[in-house]
Design a protein that fits this description.
The complex is a heterodimer. By secondary structure, chain A is an alpha+beta fold. In chain A, 48% of the residues lie in helices and 26% in strands. Chain A folds into two domains: 57 residues; 81 residues, PH-domain like, CATH 2.30.29. Chain A contains six helices and eight strands, in the order αββαααββββαββα. Chain A has a four-stranded antiparallel beta sheet. A three-stranded antiparallel beta sheet of chain A has the order 6-7-8. In chain A, α2 runs antiparallel to α4 and α3 packs antiparallel against α4. The radius of gyration of chain A is 22 Å and the shape is elongated. Chain B has a seven-stranded antiparallel beta sheet, with helices on both faces. In chain B, strands 15-14-13-18-17-16 form a six-stranded antiparallel beta sheet, sandwiched between helices. In chain B, strands 1-5-4-3-2 form a five-stranded antiparallel beta sheet. Chain B contains 18 helices and 22 strands. In chain B, α6 crosses α8 and α13 packs antiparallel against α14. Chain B is of the alpha+beta class. The chains are: A alpha+beta, B alpha+beta. β5 of chain A pairs antiparallel with β19 of chain B.
Chain lengths: 174, 557
């Protein structure tokens, strides 16, 4: 399909989701990198130690080291920057709108009238970078909107804003 | 903001209503738990011919102790549990060390289920489970495990009629049956795959149990005999016989399961706007679904069932409990002829025609087919690669196996891919959003649009390259999310906007220059990041007005 059909249809016919208005904090990149390193580095480190201390099996461990280190470093280099380009959020008087992911990207819209709870949470690594996450849940177990990597102040304000709006509107369609 | 939970603080209630207990016969039921370890002890004695090794003794001993503890706890529960209905609440007291006194407002009650397992039924007992709208914690649900049958039925009647009085439902006294068991439906029973799976599961469990006791089932006499006979016939014959035996046992098993589960099946509409499903031979079940909580239906057609023209119908309703419970309780019909399932669907939803068949479903774009064909090819290659790799490294004849694998699998997977593509469809019909999908099992879901409480869009790397998206409608009912897979961006967003008008509109823009996937990067819409705090919140959120006006001018360095 792609370009051919797109150019043939009249403009205005086709729509797409525009990105939400606000980016997350620049610091989130560092946070994601740290998080990625927690997953990606332990295995190569183990192989590196084995490589150093067991000379007879050096070729084996050398290859293992390369095979685990290269994808790990690639992941650490690519994922955070890519996420930073995608992760965005926005609220209006009627809805919360957020985008997340990198290879798999997702956009979520939840009307404020359906919001049940608004939580703020900070994991240990997020705290290191002074970041916070906000989770907005609805009566649907699958419907939570998670906005991560916000500044603490921004997150607090966001929670306040959402709480204000959602308190006013009853009914959650259970 | 947070939903007021169904469990509130107790209030001073009408003192005239006496507290009631569970039935004393419950003690006998609880003691019957001891039957299991006793039976396995006896069974072990029989199999081993009276000799016991230490391992078996330890296993049996620990079983016995566990059973004793369970019985003790259950007895304590019986002794301490009391309940009563007062005014607009039901109150429940239980516990000795951890006392709990809970009261639930009757208008919070979503349904009252009666379940009786065979042991219960021997003693004329039943369990009452009172469902509330609270789905988050199963510990919060109220259940009275072990009241007499008459007591249970009366309690259910009282709870529901009182609730209707409290909530002011019309009580129009026209209980009518929507569907009744037709024994001709039993022809569909062998087509449900559970039979074969159940047999394998049973064999596996027996094997593991014996293995735990250090008894190798493969060394037992009659197993040896079978093994010996297998050795004396050609391999293909052995395989054929095994398959036939499995299929026969599976068919018998699923027919038995059908009979147990659906004996005495009746779906009825009761006064006060509830649907009630009654069924079961050994375990009798009675599931109540409030029509107000019914958000739609799901028509399920597994492959074999579909070929025989059958289908089953599930309710998409909230308040049926967590995932597992929902799966057990949502069933509205057994496997029945498709037309019957559609008739029931229409009746249950109060429509003239089931939206699952009345809706004109829009087929999905060809690129959705391409994705499915790619998956078919990938699956074929991956499966054939195993013998091919082994053949190349170890034993050359395996290469023929690999080739045969590919030749056989390719048409099958391609047929499945085309079938999956043809199944894809979406549409709107009146109050309903209808979506159809599935490879082995086709599902058609009709979901009430007012039940949708959120919209999600997800796109994988490949979907972004082929201009597709997967739309997710989240809801409080049923599976909590229903997907429309692989639609074009424009179609998907238009569908979402039509299903829930106004929700997505502020976030849409005409597709102009720039690729969709990279939009987040190219847009550079004013960053919330850094310095200016308090900025993003509370400043001009009239999304619609500004939706096209954002540019890259506030981009951070």
């Amino acid at each position: 399909m792609g370009h051919q059909t797109r150019h043939q249809t009249r403009p205005g016919d086709e729509v797409r989701l525009r990105p939400p208005r606000h980016r997350v904090e620049r610091r989130a990149v560092a946070w994601w990198t740290t998080q990625a390193s927690v997953f990606a580095l332990p295995l190569p480190i183990v192989f590196a130690v084995l490589y150093l201390f067991i000379p007879p099996a050096r070729t084996w461990f050398g290859w293992c080291l390369v095979a685990t280190l290269v994808p790990g470093l690639l992941y650490m280099a690519v994922m955070p920057a890519w996420r930073y380009r995608v992760h965005r959020w926005e609220t209006t008087g009627e809805a919360v709108y957020a985008a997340s992911g990198w290879l798999w990207q997702r956009w979520r819209v939840v009307p404020l009238s359906r919001v049940q709870t608004v939580d703020m949470l900070r994991g240990p690594i997020q705290q290191m970078y002074g970041l916070s996450g906000v989770t907005v849940t609805t009566a649907s177990a699958a419907g939570a909107v998670k906005i991560k990597g916000l500044d603490r102040r921004t997150a607090t304000d966001l929670v306040e804003h959402l709480t204000q709006y959602t308190q006013a509107t009853p009914g959650d369609a259970t | 903001m947070t939903q007021q939970t169904a469990v509130d603080r107790p209030v001073d209630a009408d003192p005239a209503e006496p507290w009631q207990r569970l039935n004393a016969r419950l003690i006998l039921v609880q003691l019957s738990i001891l039957a299991a370890p006793a039976a396995s002890f006896a069974g072990t004695l029989l199999i081993t011919g009276g000799t016991l090794n230490l391992q078996a003794l330890i296993t049996l001993g620990s079983l016995l102790i566990t059973a004793c503890v369970i019985t003790g706890i259950s007895l304590m529960r019986f002794l301490t549990t009391r309940y009563r209905i007062t005014g607009d609440r039901i109150e429940l007291r239980s516990g000795l060390l951890f006392r709990s006194h809970r009261s639930i407002r009757l208008d919070r009650i979503r349904g009252v289920d009666l379940t009786a397992n065979p042991v219960h039924r021997v003693f004329g007992l039943t369990s009452v489970r009172i469902g509330t709208g609270d789905q988050t914690s199963s510990s919060r649900r109220l259940s009275l495990d072990g009241v007499s049958k008459a007591q249970g039925a009366e309690l259910r009647q009282r709870l529901l009629s009182r609730r209707d009085a409290v909530t002011g439902h019309p009580s129009d006294d026209d209980d009518h049956t929507i569907a009744d068991l037709d024994w001709a439906w039993i022809r569909y029973a062998p087509l449900t795959i559970w039979g074969v799976g159940g047999v394998l599961l049973g064999v596996g469990t027996v094997y593991r149990t014996l293995h735990e006791m250090r008894i190798d089932p493969l060394e037992l006499g009659f197993v040896k005999g079978i093994e010996h006979r297998y050795g004396s016939v050609p391999l293909w014959f052995g395989v054929l016989v095994t398959v036939v035996i499995l299929v026969v046992i599976g068919a018998v098993g699923s027919t038995a399961t059908f009979t147990e589960g659906w004996y005495g099946y009746r779906l009825e509409r009761e006064d006060g706007g509830t649907l009630r499903v009654l069924r079961g031979l050994l375990v009798t079940r009675s599931v109540t679904i409030e029509e107000q909580r019914l958000r739609g239906v799901e028509l399920g057609e597994t492959m074999l069932l579909r070929w025989a023209g059958g289908a089953r119908l599930n309710a998409v309703a909230s308040g049926l409990g967590d995932r597992d419970e929902n799966r057990k309780r949502r069933m509205l019909t057994p496997p029945v002829p498709r037309a019957e399932a559609l008739r029931v669907a229409a009746d249950v939803l109060g429509e003239s025609q089931s939206p699952t068949s009345a809706a004109e479903l829009t087929p999905h774009p060809r690129s959705a087919l391409r994705r499915r064909v790619n998956r078919a090819l990938t699956a074929t290659v991956l499966i054939s690669a195993v013998p091919a790799l082994l053949g190349a490294l170890l034993w050359t004849p395996l290469l023929y196996v690999a080739a045969a694998c590919a030749v056989v699998l390719l048409p099958v997977t391609l047929a499945l891919a085309h079938d999956a593509y043809r199944t894809l469809g979406h549409g709107l019909h009146g109050r309903y959003l209808v979506t159809r999908y599935g490879t082995f099992s086709h599902r058609t879901v009709a979901l009430q649009r007012e039940g949708i409480i959120g919209i999600g869009v997800s796109r994988s790397l490949f979907q972004r390259r082929s201009g597709l998206l997967t739309l997710t409608a989240t809801t409080a009912a049923g599976d909590h999310k229903y997907k429309v897979r692989d639609v074009t961006v424009t179609d998907g967003l238009a569908l979402a906007e039509k299903a829930v008008p106004g929700l997505l509109a502020p976030f849409l823009e005409p597709a102009g220059a720039g690729s969709y996937g990279g939009a987040a990067a190219s847009g550079g819409a004013g960053g919330a990041g850094g310095g200016s705090h308090g900025g993003p919140i509370g400043h001009g959120f009239a999304g619609r007005a500004r939706s096209s006006g954002h540019g890259g001018h506030r981009r951070r360095r």
